[in-house]
Write a structure and sequence with these properties.
415 residues, alpha/beta, VC0802-like, 8-stranded mixed beta sheet, 4-stranded antiparallel beta sheet, binds aspartic acid, binds magnesium ion
Length: 415
């Protein structure tokens, strides 16, 4: 008997009909002779709606209360899905994160899972139940509910799979798997059979919304192989796993565009030691994630420093940086919300040269101006005008020949 952890995302459980379809799929999995633990997201856009509602009564809602509010979305969907399972004759029970034994640290809105005691889940599994766990949440050291950050149900699923030593961790979505690029932007984008953890991590932080990056990190650390697949049709998806010889040999595995970034520029900053440290220390203290950073060559002892942050963090960044403008004697501060970050990702870059050159050349041929560049061993990102992002992604996808499956070096043993 195999143990499956199946996670269903918000759009897969958006309404009663979706719930019934998902219930059937879960029941089929169990009837095939498996134990099944299900993790659900909130139905459809519930989380966004709850956030919007909170902001109507208070523009800066308290974080503890936000967590109490948002966690209800997943609680509701776990109960409804369990009722749908009962309706088709399945034995099933729903659990909140707390009831499932998920303990998290003290940071509201971005809590990290610290430990899971799966005793109660095991007991119900042994009684033949499907256990439906509310994703995205756990109990913190003060016995309060805390959530795991947007998309956090993925992490719940991976963490449960690790704690239960599950045989499969399936992430079921409204897409067929992980694609070389967003198929809505690039019609010839291809579903990948496999992708390395490292690549998936880079793509997730580059704006691909397929999986939460923390979930991928967790999966990598605990060696949980993830399967991203369609919740609508039964067919193979994409395996996310450790890279090896058998994987398709591609220089670039995926392209992502992130239009949720904004560029902040501190103008006329004195070019003296300690200034950058001061700026980025304040940002770090405020928990603001900085992505790309560019400092110009200084002229006459002053320089401009630009960096990107999530659009949602603009107000917070302004609040943190404005006092610094005076303190470090900078000339001013401005924000630009019309940028997009386009990234190409692939472990093949480690052993191939000329990838950056080719990327820049393709952009140049398309008369797309590059405003910022950042790289890692397996990723190159550029910030460009937001309105040029789709064209950039399409041209890069074509130039790197990503629509066609490459040959494999080693014989494929997996299915
Ligand atoms: N419902 C939460 C969100 O929309 C968590 C999740 O879907 O995984 O971000
Ligand atoms: Mg959601």
């Amino acid at each position: 008997m195999a143990l499956f952890v199946q996670k269903y995302g918000g759009s897969s459980v958006a309404d009663a009909e979706c719930m019934r379809r998902v219930a059937k799929r879960i029941y089929d999995t169990q009837q095939a002779g498996n134990q099944v633990v299900v993790v659900v997201s909130a139905m459809g856009d519930t989380t966004d709606d709850l956030i919007a509602l909170a902001k109507q009564v208070n523009p800066e809602p308290n974080e503890r209360e936000m967590d109490s509010l948002m966690a209800t979305g997943e609680m509701a969907s776990s109960a409804i899905l369990t009722m749908a399972l009962h309706a088709i004759g399945a034995k099933a029970i729903s659990m909140t994160g707390h009831q499932a034994g998920i303990r998290v640290d003290g940071t509201h809105l971005k809590a990290k899972i610290q430990k899971i005691d799966p005793k109660r889940i095991r007991r119900h599994l042994d009684q033949g139940c499907v256990v439906v766990v509310a994703g995205f949440q756990g109990m913190n050291p003060s016995e309060d509910v805390a959530t795991l950050g947007r998309g956090g149900s993925d992490t719940t699923a991976v963490a449960l799979a690790a704690a239960l030593k599950a045989d499969r961790c399936q992430i079921l979505k409204d897409v067929d798997g992980v694609f070389t690029a967003n198929p809505r932007v690039v019609p010839s984008a291809r579903k990948l059979d496999e992708i390395a953890y490292e690549e998936m991590l880079e793509l997730a932080s580059a704006g691909s919304e397929v999986l939460q990056s923390r979930a991928v990190e967790y999966a990598k650390n605990y060696g949980v192989v993830l399967e991203v697949l369609s919740s609508f049709e039964v067919k193979p998806g994409t395996l996310v796993r450790e890279e090896d010889e058998e994987m398709e040999q591609m220089i670039i595995r995926g392209i992502a565009a992130d239009k949720n970034q904004a560029k902040a520029t501190l103008l006329g900053v004195p070019d003296t030691p300690g200034v950058a440290a001061r700026i980025f220390k304040s940002l770090a203290a405020a928990n603001i994630n900085v992505d790309m950073i560019v400092q110009n060559v200084s002229a006459a002892g002053v320089t401009d420093v630009s960096f990107t942050v999530a659009k949602d963090d603009i107000a917070k960044t302004r609040r943190v940086i404005e006092p610094l403008v005076k303190a470090v004697k900078a000339a001013g501060l401005n924000f630009d919300g019309d940028i997009a970050k386009v990234s190409i990702v692939g472990v093949g870059m480690k052993s191939h040269s000329g990838v950056a050159y080719k990327m820049f050349e393709v952009l140049a041929e398309n008369r797309i101006n590059i405003e910022m560049i950042s790289t890692s061993e397996i990723k190159i990102s550029v910030a460009i005008r937001a309105k040029e992002a789709d064209q950039a992604v399409r041209s890069l996808h074509a130039a790197f020949g990503m629509a066609k499956a490459p040959a494999r070096k080693a014989a494929k043993k997996r299915k």
